[in-house]
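User: I'm putting together a teaching handout on how multi-component assemblies are represented. Below are the sequence lines for each component of a complex, exactly as they appear in our records. Could you produce the 3D structure of the whole assembly as structure tokens, so the students can see both representations side by side? Please keep the chain order the same as the input.
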Amino acid sequence: MNDEDLLLLLLTLPFLGSFAAALLKTAARTAAASLAGLVALAALVITAALYPSVAGGNVVRISFEWLPTLDLNFTLRMDGFAWMFAMLITGIGLLVAVYAHYYMSKEDPVPRFFSFLLAFMGAMLGIALSGNLILLAIFWELTSIVSFLLIGYWHQNAAARDGSRMALTVTGMGGLCLLVGLLLLGHIAGGYDLDKVLAAGDAIRAHPLYLPALILVLMGALTKSAQFPFHFWLPNAMAAPTPVSAYLHSATMVKAGVFLLVRLWPALSGTYEWFWLVGLAGTATLLLGAYFAIFQQDLKGLLAYSTISHLGLITTLLSLGSPLAAVAAIFHMMNHATFKASLFMAAGIIDHETGTRDMRRLSGLFRFLPITATLAMVASAAMAGVPLLNGFLSKEMFFAETVETHADSMLDKALPYIATIAGAFAVTYSLRFIHTVFFGPPPTDLPKAEPHEPPHWMRLPIELLVLLCLIVGMVPAMSIGPFLHTAVTAVLGTETPEYSLAVWHGFNLPLVMSIVALAAGTLLYLLLRRYLATCENGPPLFRHLQGQRIFERILVTVSWKWARWLEAYSGTRRLQPQLRLLTALGFVAAFVPLYFGGFHPRPLSFARPDLVFSMIWLIGIFSALGAAYQAKYHRVAALTMLGGAGLMTCLTFVWLSAPDLALTQLLVEVVTTVLILLGLRWLPKRNEKIDNTVNFSGRLRRLRDLTIAVACGIGMSLLSYAVMTLPVPDAIANYFLEKAYTEGGGRNVVNVILVDFRAFDTMGEITVLAIVALTVFALLRRFRPAADSVAVPEQQRIQNAYDDARPERAPGDTVRDYLLVPSVIMQWLFPVIITFAAFLFVRGHDLPGGGFAAGIAMAIAFLLQYLAGGARWAEDRLRILPVRWIGAGLLTAAATGMGSWLFGRPFLTTYAQYVDIPLIGKVPLATAMLFDLGVFALVVGATVLMLIALAHQSIRVYRVRSPEPLKSEEA
Amino acid sequence: MELVLAIGIGVMTGSGVWLLLRPRTYQVIVGLSLLSYAVNLFIFGVGGIKRHAPPILPEGGIADPARFTDPVPQALVLTAIVIGFATTALFLVVLLASRGLTGTDHVDGREQSK
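Assistant: Of course. Below is the structure of the complete assembly, with chains in the same order as your input.
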């Protein structure tokens, strides 16, 4: 396998593993752990195998086109820095998988845990390896989501739920900011490819959008790395299982923020804004995190704040903008990951063995856990920065950097002091961790008595990590040296400074600072010891100022109070004000740009008014007004006039060369009218005599509505006039007209557009039609209509009385024969209309017609049978399965579209040919016709389904109808 | 011709909007139907209106595109007509269901208190 394939495999492997783990049974503990371990091991081996390819400043790249027009490609890119980060992710991932196997309890759904863990590993590798900014943002969000799932893994625990929600809100919000920031960066650099952006550093820094882009990117990075003032989510995320804390919240995910800062360091750093924004956040986090860590009573809380502080240290280093500081930052990222992950694992063992993490209850554990205690001591010495351990080296580099002058300012001058104080704090909390937990009298009130050493495999990851701390701490140049150099050159390129990784640099200022910090930290611990043994959780004074509280208060304010306020003052449950507002807004939205944009319709021309057309529209206008006037009290009259307006629309289509539209409109008009007529019987009776007195406010309301209606009407008139008289630009119409015959094989251009050129749109539209029909069907299945508002008509009553009076006639005989002649004619029309529909369908490609029109015509054929004989009669004789028609239609259309794949063409490519059929003659035969057949079947099915569903309600009513004549309701 | 059609569209829109703002479901359904006529005609008119120029090509294909009316708005309106029918049907069913459930045909499902 070549390097590119390995790179792709490296990224996909964890996701595949995650998927496989998700499929395992809940009880498959060992299988899930082995799977995760093997995947992590394989990923680690692949990463290690890629080292020769990235050593010496080379880059492994693989790229797939995704949306090339937007410069969005699926690009993976591994350089030395990404390699080092990938090593961290896979290496610690492997150790955490081993550790977690022993840590997770039997009751937990373990496969799910490992599935999330592997998904997280994949997402994290995605961040490290992305060669495209947008891709990076996607993986970034993915880590937020998986982190949410992992923190909330024990979802029965309220703290876990709250912690995960908070982490998601904070990092997710940061992720959104980051996305916008990266979009800005890409916009400035002229592309989203990482190399392109990194090369455009000078252009980016000089651009007016630099500051907004910087702030947005920093929002992403600082939230992810839990930097002040967004640090508060990390301690709350400690509700996660400890392997998650070790992996996500110390070694990898929180490093993503600083990783991004390093990654974009060549493009963004070195400005005054960068120094101040990053520096302030970094130093504040460094100092406050260390200070808060001292006063934590929860072991994991102490480690969490210490992590925050160390991340602040890295951020501070990056703010300085000097290459040497960047080297120190990269170095410290690695060192911190090793000692902090091992400390978290040790804390997990202590929790596991004693049942508590409260340092007020833990004491003297050395005698029970000597090996774990020793390992934890070494790791916390590294955390405190004791010589001969890796933490000391990077901390010395940090001290050395703070002494240098960078951007001459107050902050820069204060930096050495801040660094020393933070170093002293680090010594204090490290000392406290060790001394409280492992020394002193034996513990008295542990939830689990008799703690003992864990299984060796659970301790093994800690041993390996601590070993690394020691090796790097003692022989840095020989162990980490070359790898660090590869990573540093990948970021800094030609700017890579001379640096030395020796343990002893002679007696210099940084060493003095280290000694001062060690001494002051120890002294501070001795002073605070008594207080800390019993004090409440959290530092004095700051204890009450909890980030969590503030966060929740903001959330409540925004999402509850403000929302309620807005709802109370601007919301309504009533439809009329909503519609009024919408209509008025629509009017304003059209009016404002037209008015200010200079809307000059052509002067009205009254020349040559076509007399017939004017007459058509005179009727149309009166119909529309009449429908509006009568819709309240005379529904049938309103429906008739609505139909009149529809017919005039239809005639307009005939008049203005749109035969297809006219045909479809006419058929739809028939179906709509029947449908509404079917529904009319369930609407309440309305008496004109009642409700005739309209008070003043009612009149005012009507006047307002009338004004809106008139304004909309006039506006629409002007707009349509302007649009119609505008000279038509050379639109796409010509394209369709020219290609319809040659490429679509049809002469009816409208039909060719529908079933060929824009067939995909049509496909969407018929899908909508199918969904609406099914919705109607579903609604009516559960629906019990209101009682009939119309009593039995007088004529029917007379007919029934006639039957009752004669012994030879059964009641209902006369009613059955009512309108016998028309219904026989309607029955006879059935085959005629079907032939008509077939005719419309076949000629559709060349002449007006087509699937839509034919489908509705066919539906009318069925409808007539229902009208002629009633629902029962029709269904005794006809088996119509409209849902199958719909399904068959949709499948036919989709299959026709996919058929073109067989010939290696894109979806819905059509083929056309004229075929001679005996007797009939030359017939256009295109695969588009098959598609049209699907449209036809679907339209038939959908229309019939809706009509039948409504018609069936009348049968239901008979079932529930009470013997007494119904009282008519008052409106 | 354009003027007549424009006035017609305007009147239909006005009547439709007026009905849309009324309190009875039946008024709203009639109003929506009128509005959809108006909108369909408007879209149809966007391509410019022509008489005696249906987009049906002669045997053998095109001679001169200028002799035909614009087929694109027609294709748009054709599907709009069918979908408009479907939504009218849906709305009708919803209004009937609402009437069955609440006993009133007021758009809010209850009579407005005065």
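A couple of points students might notice: Residues 25 and 94 of chain B are 10 Å apart (CA to CA). The radius of gyration of chain B is 19 Å.
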